[in-house]
Structure formats: structure tokens, C-alpha cells
Design a protein that fits this description.
It comes from Perkinsus marinus (strain ATCC 50983 / TXsc). Keywords: Hydrolase. By secondary structure, the protein is α+β, with helices and mostly antiparallel strands. It contains eight helices and 24 strands. Helix 1 packs across helix 5, helix 3 runs antiparallel to helix 4 and helix 3 packs across helix 8. The radius of gyration is 23 Å and the shape is globular.
């Protein structure tokens, strides 16, 4: 495999502010998710400073998770302070520690939930759950029996909001993210008496279920249902999605107002193959960057004559019409969107822990050696 015109095994020196990540075969979905998590600074800081677990007497499964954590810390450390343009050795160590098959195309949403869950298991007692503090929210389900009027409530934790997309076999048409979210929170009627058992009535009854957010996360993942089974075949839903870059108002559902800071896209017309990229906003500068494995470039969202010029991000169409303020983007490839609460203070990341800084410095020196030898030959 070749990338940036260089043979695999040679790590080019970074020239811009951010590192790409080498694709090891079919790991573009891993790379896109890792970039999004890295750009989520509270999550990055907490991950980098999570104590390395004592593996003595622990189960093999726990040891694997701890080794994966250390590999993730080294990768994030190199992405933050390293000089490699593609972090090949670090991402290879992470993929191997996690036992990720490099030739298999998987789902970044499923990987995100797995990654966050095992990180939570590694948080020592007495240390705040930074995963829940960053991405976790609470939703209340309230079901009302239509026979007796009794109400039952259930509270659940969520780390992402999944929204359905109307099926479209080809590109065309457009749906608004706000409408899809409203559909998620619309009342659900159980008209079939076999669906809801009322304890007060002692029998199955018709009922209405409503839901709303009890606690909104600072960072909100919204994942589209872009895959559906039709005629027994898993197909890609190519419906165009219009979503706000600023001002996603969820106050009607007892949540907050959010601004978009990331989009993970699946580039393909089929469900079983394709390529993932990430377009992410730098909190410090407000600049958007597109990450396509080892290729990194700045992209722009700029209003032009009442429209929004999308540059090459995220759907690579030159101009997108603005419906109403706030500014919007449209994409038939957007799969996961990352939003942050308006007004949420995002601090800069502190220096790396001493052990990690030493490891990154060692990697940097190893990369500088070939450059030194070339100068000596001259």
C-alpha cells in the first residue's frame, strides 16, 4: 500500500498543525473516529491522563483493554506533540492491541460505543467518569396507559442519538436534521394491545409513550440510520441530509442548543464497502479540517451571496443554499455528526504526562535520524 507517494514503513514529517493517520488496509473507519475523539479536547485530556492500570492478578480481557488504553495514549500523544505526518507505528500498535482486523470494513458508530465502554471500565474508583461527563446523557421514557391513565417512567443513559432516514435508492431530495430529531421524540402509540402490559390494569392495554432528555451531554453524537434491509439485502440510504452548522435547537426536548464540530462521512453507494473521512472543527481557531487517512487539508464554510460555500466539506459540493439562519450544510454521505453545547468552555490541552512525553520524544528523535544521516552524506 502507498500513501502520500511514500512506501509503507516510511513515516513522513508533519508539515501542518495536525497529523493524519495511516490506513492499514480497511481502517479508514477507525481513523475517522480517532480523529473525532482527538478533537474532543476534554475527552483527549482525560484519556491522556488516565492512570495506567496495574495488571498484576487481572484477567486477560482486562489486560488487553489496559494495553489498548496505553496504545491509545501513545497515539494521542504523538498526534498532539509528535512530528510524524501519519503516526503509522502508533496506530499500528493501537490496532494490534485492540485486535482490530485491518482487512475488514466495520461501523465507526459501533466501534465508538465499544471503545467508550471499555474506557469506562478502566477508570479507577474515585476518578470521575470522563466518558459519561463528555458524551453521556439521560433520557426519560414515560408510558401512559389509555385504559386507566397510570404512568410508568424509565430513565436510560445514552451516548448517541440515532435518527432514521427516509429511504432513497439514489441521491436526491433532502430532509432536515431538525425534522428527524423531532420524529425521534414524537409520541409513540401502542395500538396493539400485545405491546404494553399495564401493571395497574393487570393486562395488556393500548398506551402512549413519550420521551424527553433529562440530562443533555456537552458533546452529542447524532448517528444516521444510513443502512436498511430491503428485499433481504442491506442497502445504503442515499437521502440528502441538511443539518445546521450552528444553532441546532433541542430545547423543545428539554436539551440545549448545539453547534456542529464534526462530521464523519461514508463515501459509497453501497452498504458493504466504501471509505470513511472526518471533517472536524478546531475549537481554538474555528477552522475546519478534513481528515482522509494520512491526507489532511483545511476546508472552509463561508457565506457567499446569501448561500453557504461548503468548499470540499463535508459533501464536496461547491455551494449550499441557506434556508434560514443558522448556516447549514447538506450531505448524502454524512453518517455521524458531532455537536457541542453552545457556550461550553473547551480548554486547551495541558502538557503530556512525563512518561508519555518521553515516549513521544523518542519517536520524534527516531524520525529525525534519517534526516540527520542525509545531511551528513551531503
Amino acid at each position: 500500500m502507498k500513501e502520500l507517494g511514500l512506501d509503507k514503513g516510511f513515516e513522513p514529517i508533519r508539515t501542518g498543525p495536525f497529523a493524519g493517520i495511516r490506513n492499514l488496509g480497511a481502517t479508514c473507519y477507525v481513523n475517522s473516529l480517532l480523529q473525532a475523539l482527538f478533537f474532543t479536547k476534554p475527552f483527549r485530556t482525560a484519556t491522556l491522563n488516565l492512570p495506567t492500570a496495574d495488571l498484576n492478578g487481572r484477567s486477560s480481557a482486562f489486560n488487553q483493554q489496559a494495553a489498548s488504553l496505553r496504545a491509545l495514549q501513545v497515539l494521542f500523544g504523538e498526534m498532539q506533540c509528535g512530528i510524524s505526518a501519519t503516526c503509522e507505528s502508533s496506530v499500528t500498535a493501537f490496532v494490534e492491541a485492540c485486535k482490530i482486523h485491518t482487512s475488514t470494513h466495520e461501523d465507526p458508530s459501533e466501534l465508538a460505543m465499544l471503545l467508550l465502554s471499555w474506557l469506562q471500565r478502566l477508570i479507577p474508583k474515585g476518578v470521575p467518569d470522563f466518558v459519561e461527563e463528555t458524551f453521556g446523557g439521560l433520557v426519560i421514557y414515560e408510558t401512559t396507559c389509555r385504559s386507566c391513565g397510570s404512568i410508568s417512567r424509565q430513565t436510560e443513559v445514552f451516548a448517541e442519538m440515532r435518527v432514521p432516514l427516509p429511504y432513497a435508492p439514489t441521491t436526491g431530495g433532502e430532509v432536515l436534521l431538525e425534522d428527524l430529531v423531532a420524529d425521534v421524540f414524537a409520541p409513540e402509540v401502542f395500538s396493539d394491545e400485545s405491546h404494553y402490559y399495564c401493571c395497574a390494569c393487570g393486562k395488556y392495554c393500548e398506551a402512549v409513550r413519550r420521551q424527553w432528555i433529562k440530562s443533555a451531554p456537552p458533546f452529542l453524537w447524532i448517528t444516521m440510520h444510513r443502512y436498511a434491509f430491503t428485499d433481504g439485502v442491506r442497502r445504503k440510504i442515499l437521502t440528502e441530509l441538511s443539518f445546521p452548522l450552528t444553532g441546532l435547537d433541542l430545547t423543545s426536548f428539554n436539551a440545549r442548543v448545539y453547534d456542529c464540530v464534526g462530521a464523519l462521512e461514508h463515501h459509497s453507494t453501497v452498504a458493504h464497502a466504501g471509505h470513511y473521512t472526518a471533517t472536524l472543527k478546531d475549537h481554538s481557531t474555528g477552522i475546519w479540517w478534513r481528515f482522509d487517512d494520512g491526507h489532511v487539508r483545511e476546508v472552509d464554510w463561508a457565506p457567499v451571496d446569501g448561500e453557504v460555500q461548503a468548499g470540499e466539506s463535508p459533501s464536496e459540493r461547491a455551494l449550499k443554499r441557506r434556508r434560514t439562519a443558522p448556516e447549514r450544510a447538506s450531505s448524502h454521505t454524512a453518517y455521524m455528526l458531532l455537536y457541542v453545547q453552545q457556550g461550553y468552555k473547551v480548554d486547551d490541552c495541558p502538557d503530556l504526562p512525563s512518561w508519555l512525553a518521553a515516549e513521544v520524544n523518542r519517536k520524534n528523535e527516531a524520525l529525525r535520524l534519517p534526516e540527520t544521516f542525509d545531511h551528513q552524506r551531503l
